[in-house]
Specification:
The structure is a single chain. By secondary structure, the protein is an alpha/beta fold. The protein has 3 domains: about 280 residues, Alpha-Beta Barrel (TIM Barrel); about 60 residues; about 120 residues, Alpha-isopropylmalate synthase LeuA, regulatory domain (Double Stranded RNA Binding Domain). The protein has 17 helices and 18 strands. Helix 1 runs antiparallel to helix 11, helix 2 runs parallel beside helix 3 and helix 3 packs parallel to helix 5. The longest helix is centred in the C-terminal third of the chain and has 30 residues. The protein is globular. The structure holds 3-methyl-2-oxobutanoic acid (KIV) and zinc ion. 3-methyl-2-oxobutanoic acid (KIV) binds next to strand 6.
Length: about 525
């Protein structure tokens, strides 16, 4: 009989540790809601000891997201475990995930602890976590580079201390599939009590083998797999959820295993994570890349027309990717628009959100002949994370050309005040960004700027993502428009508004502390 694999999503913890990724509370909640729709079994919401923002994010998710198990990470120390428990205790099903490194190199140089002390600390941590929380997961960090005999000893002790889940990380993505599969097999054969707990794996992608290693692990008896959307995560990332899940689904004949993931929600989840983190998906990325279902060569197209199975091993529909249809134009009414929204799966929008989206659709239909499903999805996702728009773009003007200095004038509004400024720049985008800085009276540290077309055609919607930095924190902004300069200015202002929101939350917290 086919067995179930539990999907543990760590996009909001390991994924959020990706370089240049920083999500605010509303964004974390939005992603968590979508992960719930996707059907993840366990959602690792953060590492609460690391910051107040992380703690609050985990707590809000624990309070509001009720279907999956909600877990938080803690080093094997009392203070971390207390903080993790404080953050997850209101979850419908809370779990504490505690870890300590067991490889010689980590014990000697990072922890500066003898193996006996590590063993003792692991046991104390699991016992303490278990005294607070009904479900405890234990991870021996850098397990794949640990001495197997010592690893077995630590795992056995952690199980005796009350661990419910034992997770084996390939922390630095060093393992190969055959090797990692044998490690899992060795653990199952040598660790007393392992059959009483769930055996999990957590693979990093430094050598591009995270998904292959996770698949080798489930072939050898692992029953929980830790992964992230779009493979986000430390350095080269973690095993990509969409790749692992679709491999099991597409090759059910081979693996004979299943997950409870609603695969039709994969594409939407990938797009949401990409747009909120500002980390774009490479076009040739398996499953969710823009080219994953595109067939360029004539021979392939011919084969597909004769029978899709010639070159397609899974359908675009199975990940929720619908063929973009020409659906609406400027004469379409609200009723038709609402019906299309429902068909696209947007059934939870409030009347105000629908009105707002409809107004945006009308504005777009004035500029664009046909409005496609992908345009509508972009309009909705533009509004999905509501943050206070302290700074708003009222108007801009650009003068630019290849033989003149680009100049820009902007008019912004900020809490009832009108701010107008002009500036020059090295190209129109630089000019408008400078004009916005001047008008808002800010010195903004721009870290990254991107622009791309969301849909096809000359009148395609352009999407800009901008990352700015302040005090070591990154704020990602997004803007869409048929005009790429407007999209860029909106993205820049969106990032500034996130920065201002963070500033005002920090000063509110300072006041509380006083
Ligand atoms: O990569 C790793 O080892 C981790 C652990 C904390 C599970 O992320
Ligand atoms: Zn990790």
């Amino acid at each position: 009989m086919s067995e179930r694999i539990y999907i543990f999503d760590t996009t909001l913890r390991d994924g959020e540790q990706s370089p240049g990724v920083s999500l605010n509370m509303q964004e974390k909640l939005e992603i968590a809601r979508q992960l719930e729709n996707l059907g993840v079994d366990i959602l690792e919401a953060g590492f609460p000891i690391t910051s107040k923002g992380d703690f609050e994010g985990v707590r809000a998710i624990a309070q509001q997201i009720r279907k999956p198990v909600i877990t938080a990470l803690a080093r094997a120390v009392k203070q971390d475990i207390d903080r993790a428990w404080e953050a997850v205790k209101e979850a419908a099903r809370p779990r504490i995930h505690t870890f300590i490194a067991t490889s010689d190199v980590h014990m000697k140089y990072k922890l500066r602890m003898k193996p006996e002390a590590v063993l003792e600390r692991a046991v104390e941590a699991v016992k303490y976590a278990k005294s607070l929380c009904p479900e405890v997961e234990f991870s021996p960090e850098d397990a794949s580079r640990s001495r197997p005999e010592f690893l077995y000893q630590v795992l056995e002790a952690a199980i005796m201390a009350g661990a419910d889940v034992i997770n084996i990380p390939d922390t630095v993505g060093y393992s190969t599939p055959l090797e990692f599969g044998s490690l899992i097999k060795g653990i199952r054969e040598n660790v007393k009590g392992i059959d009483k707990v769930i055996l999990s794996v957590h693979c990093h992608n430094d050598l591009g083998m995270a998904v292959a290693n996770s698949l080798a692990a489930v072939e050898n008896g692992a029953r929980q797999v830790e992964c992230t959307i779009n493979g986000l995560g430390e350095r080269a990332g973690n095993a990509a959820l969409e790749e692992f899940v679709m491999a099991l689904r597409t090759r059910k004949d081979y693996y004979g295993l299943y997950t409870n993931i609603v695969t039709e929600q994969i594409y939407r989840t990938s797009t949401l994570v990409s747009s909120l983190t500002g980390v774009h998906v490479q076009p040739n990325k398996a499953v969710v890349g823009a080219n994953a279902f595109a067939h360029e060569s004539g021979i392939h197209q011919h084969g597909l027309l004769a029978n899709r199975e010639t070159y397609e091993i899974m359908t675009p529909e199975s990940i929720g990717l619908k063929q973009s249809q020409i659906i609406l134009g400027k004469h379409s009414g609200r009723h038709a628009f609402e019906e299309r929204l429902a068909e696209l799966g947007y059934t939870h929008l409030s009347a105000d959100e629908i009105s707002d989206a409809f107004q945006k659709f009308k504005d777009l239909a004035d500029k664009k002949k046909y409005v496609l499903d992908s345009d509508i999805e972009a309009l909705i996702s533009d509004k999905i994370t509501q943050i206070p728009e302290v700074l708003q773009l009222e108007y801009f003007h650009i003068s630019s050309g290849n033989s003149l200095i680009s100049t820009s004038t902007v008019r912004l509004s900020m809490e009832g005040r009108i701010l107008e400024e002009a500036a020059c720049g090295d190209g129109p985008i630089d000019a408008i960004f400078h004009a916005i800085d001047r008008a808002a009276g800010l010195e903004v540290n721009l870290k990254d700027y991107r622009i791309r077309a969301i849909t096809s055609g000359k009148d395609a919607l352009g999407e800009s993502t901008v990352k700015i930095e302040k005090n070591g924190r990154i704020y990602a902004g997004r803007g869409i428009s048929t005009d790429i300069i407007e999209a860029s200015a909106k993205a820049y202002i969106n990032a500034i508004n996130k920065m201002l929101l963070d500033d005002s939350e920090d000063s509110a917290q300072d006041k509380q502390a006083i």
